[in-house]
Amino acid sequence: MATTETVGIKGIESLHYYVRDLERSRRFYQEKMDFAEVAVSTPEAQKQARQRSALFTAGDCRILCSEPVGEGGRAWHYLKSHPDGVGVVVFEVEDAERALRVIEGNGGTPITSVETHEVEGGTVKTFAVTTPFGDTHFQFVERKGETVSYPGLKFHEAPKGGENAFGFTHIDHLTANFRTMKPMLLWLEHVLGWKQFWDVEFHTTDVGGGDEGSGLRSIVMYDPESGVKFANNEPERPNFYDSQIWIFVDDNRGEGIQHAALHTPDLMSCVRGLRERSVEFMPTPGSYYDLLPERIEKLGIKEIDEDIDDLRELEILVDGSADHAYLIQIFLRDSAGLYKDSEAGPFFFELIQRKGDDHFGAGNFRALFESIEREQMKERRA
Questions:
Q1: Is the pTM of this model over 0.90?
Q2: Interacting residues of 182 by C-beta distance below 8 A, sequence separation 6+
Q3: Are 51 and 80 in contact (CB under 8 A)?
Q4: Are both 151 and 206 inside the same structural domain?
Q5: Cα 75 from Cα 161, distance rounded (Å)
């Protein structure tokens, strides 16, 4: 008999990022992104899990980074197969027991039963499940009391490093790349109860000229209860193997999380401040801004609050679909590019400010795709 119960997701709680160099991550989050380090793994947890960890926060954006200590731990197993990347997506749920019952009843595959942990400030119940992109798990957490801690972490007496000068509020959405995305779409629909929110497909033969360029198909799924959105990409023919979606999967040595979008209420100031800290972003050609006034009119946005010259200077993108309802966004270089190290991985962050538009701008989606493709073409021709 079909259940009417839902998983009860409240939001994206955190990302667990497996890295080879925790000190490098510490410098990036504290010195570049102005995140605070709020907790580290206890000696006991480090010995048991065979990894050392640090939790970085800015607003409700939480990134837990773990580096292997010896062999055999979860971080070691992930990094044995992949470059640095997101190995666990953590969702907060209303009731962990109910969430497990619903997911398992819908055909999901739990890795653990619900485990209860007493942590600083309260109680945490948690369990994990496998996903169609196998080496990245989904974890579900129920919290009781005043706590954002995790099992095995010890909070600092006072946060270290940044103070969230750029005003990050929460993780807006996640995007993953697949060789074929249908298994993930069906899993999100039938196991988690999510629905389709948005889709787009295109090809970019005009980027490289002649027969160059490639394409993608993207479908965004969302959780009707929480509004959590998860975009899914796959390559499109012709030139299937030249698609930057395929190249990501190849560089990542498997499907995985391509990027996470961090929301800020003042993207212009945020990007200006990050550029002053030498944070690198994906470039946008000047022609994008030459055509922007016409695009704003055609999209129906009609007018924006920002000056186009300022947008051009900062290389921020604009998209939308209604009268004065739009979004602005920008994309950091991937970790491999930021660190000049292929083993740092192809994951990157998006920064986004929503000004009345909760969709995914097709124009900006294509602009990002083309920007990555241009950079890959430069590397291949170098």
A1: yes
A2: none
A3: no
A4: no
A5: 24
DSSP state string for 15-52: EEEE-S-HHHHHHIIIIIS-PEEEEEE-HHHHHHHTEE
SS3 92: strand
Residue (of 233, 244, 231, 234) closest to 198 by Cα position: 231
Q: From CA 140, how far away is CA 12, in angstroms rounded?
A: 10
Coil, helix or strand at residue 218: strand
Residue 206: CB partners within 8 Å, gap ≥ 6?
213
Q: What is the pLDDT of residues 328-368, one digit of tens each?
A: 999 999 999 999 999 999 999 999 999 988 877 666 666 66
Are 86 and 221 found together in one domain? no
> What is the pLDDT, as a whole number, of residue 317?
92
Domain end among 110, 132, 161: 161
Q: Are 123 and 221 in a shared domain?
A: no
Residue appearing with tokens 């969302």: 222
Instruction: Quote the CA–CA distance of 73 and 67 in Å, as a whole number.
Output: 10
Judge if 184 and 226 occupy the same domain: yes
Instruction: Specify the CATH number for the domain of residue 194.
Output: 3.10.180.10
Pick from 161, 186, 212: which residue ends a domain? Answer: 161
Q: At what angle do helices 244-252 and 362-381 cross, to 10 degrees?
A: 60
Same domain membership, residue 175 and residue 151: no
Closest C-alpha to 88, from 145, 116, 117, 126: 126
